[in-house]
């Protein structure tokens, strides 16, 4: 079909060649003036196997939609579209080898490669420092590169429907991120660093392999949406408790700290003083104990913003700590009521590490 069946540039600068069954796109029928006036070009829902280099004749293009074609590559000339801010290329045959070498030098703000064949996020994409929205849903991604942290303007990251197994801590450096979509992947844990995402309003984690969340997630006070359905959470948690007792050093340290035995620098070598400083207080409100290296991983259900009952990770001082508290702390029994309402078999414990 010839392109002159398509529309001319409207007063709004929109040139629409979508849904015309085009196998090729020749720009000869578009006047030079129209090419210059066009700021949005729609070539979506055609049968294009290749993007003609003549697309770069539209020198003022700000938005290009080439979704729902059969494209397997975007040519090197593409980077000449210096004013392009939005590229929508959903549902094509693109992969990490399809992009121009200098793609990262473009000034894109919105990039949508959902429904393609990417197995990795191309490093060129992590160089788009003005990018505010990146969508790579429904691809074949297995991981998120640490370089994602370079996308310092990013507000939306959509990576749902891939094979991602881990969230790198570097994601936490995306300080403007408001929407993080990681649903329908194979993620087993959430790094506690994510709580640095102070702008985060929506976190989508449904249909993954999560067994717990880090308790730090409670500090995401601006979070308005959190989806967790379709995760095993504690259901598939390890049932056997293997007890690896604390060392004599740790036992001595625990006694000194929990009994408030006074000590000062002349009493002991500096490495022992440093060791004593590393004591963590047991989070069990009924326990006044401390721990160093030997602790028990424990899942506790906590209300989150009154909307969810989240299984959160705690580290307790000993395997006895939950069932028969190490010692009494009369100050707070409030939290423990929570615990009693959860069936005992769902409060599984395993040793850390
Ligand atoms: Zn304890």
Secondary-structure topology with pairs:
Blueprint: E1 14-16, H1 32-37, E2 40-42, E3 63-65, E4 86-88, E5 110-112, E6 133-135, E7 156-158, E8 179-181, E9 202-204, E10 213-214, E11 225-227, H2 248-258, H3 270-277, E12 280-281, E13 290-291, E14 296-304, E15 308-316, H4 334-340, E16 349-351
Parallel strand pairs: 1-2, 2-3, 3-4, 4-5, 5-6, 6-7, 7-8, 8-9, 9-11, 10-15
Antiparallel strand pairs: 12-13, 14-15, 14-16
Bound molecules: zinc ion.
Question: What would you note in describing this structure?
Answer:
This protein is mainly beta and 353 residues long. The chain folds into 2 domains: 3-227, Ribonuclease Inhibitor (Leucine-rich repeat, LRR (right-handed beta-alpha superhelix)); 248-351, no CATH class. The protein contains 4 helices and 16 strands. The chain has helices spanning 32-37, 248-258, 270-277, 334-340; strands spanning 14-16, 40-42, 63-65, 86-88, 110-112, 133-135, 156-158, 179-181, 202-204, 213-214, 225-227, 280-281, 290-291, 296-304, 308-316, 349-351. The strands form 3 sheets. It has a 10-stranded parallel β-sheet with strand order 1-2-3-4-5-6-7-8-9-11, with no helix packed on it. A hairpin with a 3-residue loop joins β14 (296-304) and β15. It starts with 13 loop residues before the first strand and ends with a strand. The site of zinc ion has 9 residues, from loops. It comes from Hippocampus comes. Pfam families: LRR_8. InterPro entries: Leu-rich_rpt, Leu-rich_rpt_typical-subtyp, LRR-SigEffector_domain, LRR_dom_sf.
